Amino acid sequence: MNWRRTLLIIALLTPGLGVIVIMIGSVFYVAVMQSFGFYNLVGEESFSLEHWQKVLDSKQFSRALRYSAYIATVAAIGSVTLAYPIAIWLRRPFRGSLVISALLKAPLFVPGLVASFLFLNVIAFHGIVNQFMMWIGVTDAPIRLQNDRGAWGVVFLQLWKNMPFALLLLTGAVQSISDEVLDAARDLGAGSFARFRKIIAPLTVQAMQAALIIIFIGAAGDFAFQVTAGPTNVQSMAQYMVFLKDSFGRWNQAAVVGVSLMVLALCGSLVLAVLSRALLRSGNRW
Q1: Which of 153, 194, 176, 159 is nearest to 284 (CA)?
Q2: At what angle do helices 205-220 and 152-175 cross, to 10 degrees?
Q3: How many Cα atoms are found within 13 Å in the side-chain-facing hemisphere of 153?
Q4: How far is CA 193 from the centre of its chain?
Q5: Helix crossing, 59-89 with 205-220: angle to 10°?
Q6: Measuring CA to CA, which residue among 271, 272, 240 is closest to residue 258?
Q7: Selection from 180, 208, 217, 178 nearest residue 72 by Cα
Q8: For the segment 122-150, what is each residue's pLDDT rounded down to a tens digit?
Q9: How many CA atoms does the CB half-sphere of 241 hold within 13 Å?
Q10: Distance between CA 219 and CA 159 in Å, rounded?
Q11: How far is CA 50 from the centre of its chain?
Q12: I need a surface site. Which of 90, 162, 230, 272 has the fewest CB within 10 A?
């Protein structure tokens, strides 16, 4: 009876999940094989580690890898950190809470490229920020804020775009915690931080891990924010992959960067998920 039920579940999932698995699996297969010299658009096909060696020996690749890992980590941790107190604040409905929640989640409906150009208009030479600083006398002339070397513009855009998503996941998890549990902890003398550390965080760890993983993967493969508002002295992994493809058609080396980006997304998300649970376990021992 169990195997029949299992087969029924697999059959029901096959139309949707099967297509996704086939599409993702085929893309991953072609990218891996192309990185080893197969599926060449030009020239002969043969197994070779030359493309991996050229990319891994490139300083531009190592800089792009570190940069993408940095942006993805800051975006994931920063978004969850900002979303947690807001989710706790909106846990109990109050007058205007629905309006505030809707406004905070509005960035989810704004395309990333549109947000980038809006941001550039604000920080441009004759944008609102420069005009305001000259008006209050901070500067005598416009200063360059666009494409800053520290990538603060990209970090801001990532937080602005991803924090609402983390808030969406954490709000439901926080609201599922019963008032009796929190009231009992309060009666036993637990303060706000103790209640968060020992009750709220452990009970919402799965939502937190989901937010960390999804945001990290999306930010690691970012292209729109980096191209429009990112620093010009370093490239992201996605930007470097496109650069290799466009410069003399180095598709095999671009495939190496693509596979490396997949590995970065997988390893980084697993590390964040494991570390978040480990920190919660160590925190409960305090």
Answers
A1: 194
A2: 150
A3: 25
A4: 27
A5: 140
A6: 240
A7: 217
A8: 888 788 888 888 888 888 888 878 888 88
A9: 21
A10: 10
A11: 31
A12: 90
Single-letter amino acid, residue 138:
V
Q: What are the tens digits of pLDDT across the range 44-89?
A: 778 888 889 999 999 999 999 999 999 999 999 999 999 999 998 9
Please give the single-letter amino acid code of residue 18.
Answer: G
Q: How far is CA 188 from the centre of its chain?
A: 38
- The answer to whether 114 and 120 have CB atoms below 8 angstroms apart is no
43: DSSP letter: S
Helix (H, G, I), strand (E, B) or coil at 234: coil
Tokens representing residue 3 in the block: 């195997």
Tokens encoding 286: 């305090």
Residue recorded with tokens 């993967």:
217
DSSP code of residue 196: I
Rg (CA), the chain: 23
Report which of 148, 202, 153 is spatially closest to residue 174, judged by C-alpha positions. 202
CB-based burial label for 198 (10 Å; 0-12, 13-18, 19+): middle
Q: Looking at the chain, which runs of residues are DSSP E strands? A: none
Distance separating alpha carbons of residues 121 and 239, to the nearest angstrom? 22
Taking the C-alpha atoms of residue 195 and residue 186, their distance in angstroms, rounded to an integer, is 8
AA letter at 113: L
Spatial contact of 80 and 208, defined as CB atoms under 8 Å apart: yes
- Kindly report the pTM of this predicted structure: 0.86
Contacts of 116-120 with C-beta under 8 Å, sequence gap 24+, read 116/157, 116/224, 116/225, 116/228, 116/229, 117/228, 119/153, 119/156, 119/157, 119/229, 120/146, 120/228, 120/229
